[in-house]
Amino acid sequence: AVVSTQSTGGVYGVFYFAGHGFEIAGENYLVPVDAPSNVRIEHCIKAQYVLHRMQFRETKLNLLLLDMCREFNNIGGVPGDIQPVKSRGNTAIGYACGPGSRAYGSENDKNGIYVKYLKE
Fold first, then answer.
1. CA 92/CA 77 separation, integer angstroms
2. For the segment 16-64, what is each residue's pLDDT rounded down to a tens digit?
């Protein structure tokens, strides 16, 4: 994952995540590379939290790219308490797949299919 540390009021903010993830009740969770094999929600980062931090920077445009699965996983834990972000109309979110689906990769490519075509 890449997070910009630019100062407040910049032109744009970009967050790209490629890795394991899942969705529960419409909320997307990113699984860190150092999460234990018996991952629980409290080990994950909520995509809404990332978006909240990006909008806090008051950038002109925020781009959130999630190259991960969004299928439901029955893991333990209780979802976090992040409040919904009020959109200012300056956010674009790109998903590698639809809700409840898996993102596809290729063993022959360094990147997943999503990034392969995004780069073109």
1. 29
2. 998 888 888 888 899 999 988 888 888 899 998 898 888 888 888 889 9
pTM for the structure as a whole: 0.77
Provide the token pair at 96.
Answer: 């590698």
Which residue is catalytic, options 43, 44, 52, 69? 69
Choose, from 20, 44, 52, 97, the residue flagged as catalytic: 20
Q: Among 84, 92, 31, which residue's Cα sits nearest to residue 64? A: 92
Contact 102, 69 (CB under 8 A): yes
Active-site residue 43, yes or no?
Answer: no
CA 49 to chain centre: 9
Structure tokens at 43: 């080990």
Structure tokens at 73: 């996983």
Instruction: For residue 73, give the nearest of 50, 111, 43, 110 by alpha carbon.
Output: 43
Q: Are 95 and 69 in contact (CB under 8 A)?
A: no
Let me know if 44 is a catalytic residue.
no
